[in-house]
Amino acid sequence: MDVLKTELEEAFAIQHFDKSLFNEQALMDCRKLIQSLTEINNGCAVLTDMADNKSYFSIGTFGDFLGLSQEDISKEVIESLDEDCIYQHIHPEDLVEKRMLELHFFQFLCKLPINERLKYRSNCRIRMTNQKGEYCYITNQTHILRNSPCGNMWLALCLYDLSPNQNPLTSIDSQITNNETGEVIAVSLSEAKRSILSTREKEILQLIKKGYLSKEISKNLNITINTVNRHRQNILQKLNVNNSLEAVHSAEAMKLF
After folding, report:
1. What are the chain's domains?
2. Which DSSP category does 112 fall into?
């Protein structure tokens, strides 16, 4: 389980919707919009319905570029707030930062008057694998397209396009932009990244890096093996990686030590 994904879903769950008040035509109009967008730019557009826990896709030729399966390309609706078939192509380190930016953007919008929320978008540049398995830079934007009749954020648009700038970055260059004024708010995720692992988890990961086994870590830190293994699993979940080696590499790249 992706811990940051769970945290984000819990934040969304704070909102309460009365579906009897909804205008289904607004949803249909937005679905047509994302299809038009991908026909124009050949990118990928995902419309998320936060009230119904569904995501609507329009992928087009961008799916071929990423090497998505025909099954993934043909998907139009999934029963999830997350576009997993896209997220699995994102570099693990960038996915962690993207999750943090999504949460930060949601919290930022929650503080605004309802009629101000639609004026902003979040922006970042992330690494995604293409059909050859090589990482390339993709621009990503998120907008709120519609509020619900009861004033909650309802329909969110997430856009992916090949970035014209393929120069390496040390972060995802996260920003929030006012679409009306052009004001750009830089979003620093450094503090959030540093706190993603607890002090104990960092200690354990440092020992893993040195080649210690769980039994040796248990003895070194005077904790049980079960506790060590639980911390190890938490580390993998928080960093969205599959094994301890990937966790060490990811933590070093994110400067968590």
Report:
1. 3-190 (3.30.450.20), 197-253 (1.10.10.10)
2. S
Q: Helix count (H) and strand count (E) of the chain?
A: 11, 8
CA-based R_g, the chain, Å: 20
For the CA atoms of 241, 247, 249, 255, the dihedral, rounded to the nearest 10 degrees, stands at 110
The dihedral through the CA atoms of 142, 122, 104, 112 has a sign that is: negative
For 172, the token pair is 């995802």
Q: Which two tokens stand for residue 209?
A: 């890096």
Q: Which residue ranges in the chain fall short of pLDDT 50?
A: 1
3-class DSSP assignment, residue 214: helix
Per DSSP (E only), the strands in the chain are 44-49, 54-58, 77-78, 120-129, 135-147, 153-162, 175-178, 184-186
Structural tokens at position 73: 């390309």
pLDDT reported for residue 4: 56
3 state DSSP class of 160: strand
For residues 74 and 166, what is the distance between their CA atoms, to the nearest angstrom?
A: 28
Position 123: which residue type?
A: N
Which stretch of DSSP H or E encloses residue 221?
Answer: helix 214-221
